[in-house]
User: What shape does this take?
Amino acid sequence: MALRPAASRELASRLFAPGSAAAAALVAAAWPRAVGSTLGGRTEVVGLEAGTLRVRVPDARWRTVLHRMRHDILARLRETAGPAAPQRLGFVEGPVTLRDVPSGTVPRSARPVPASLVAASDSIPDPALRERFLETAARYLDRFGERTPVVPAQENPDA
Assistant: This one.
């Protein structure tokens, strides 16, 4: 027996009431998916309080980059956590325990990477880094599509 949509929202609101420990756990679990596995492994959710998600970052550069991404991150958190998602992000600098985030948190691309890009990636000596590069390129192409590079017109002095 399936719940009606209204009943599902009500149940979710009761289980993950804003400000509850369950809501904080849900948002902390959604964080790596919202920012990607690399950022998720290099940042740490500190807590959720009064609608603000506090995240520990290694330094001011990370804080600046994540601050610029905050609108996208909050939108992704809303997709996953619904009403339990924070309204704001706050960043604190400090040592972060680096950890591996399961790679399944970032969706794999279905788009094949162009052969020219695969050939160029052969110059990356580290196989794990090469694989990550190709995954990132495929996700970029999924999002923005292939673009033909703009080549400046050659001036013809004989014309």
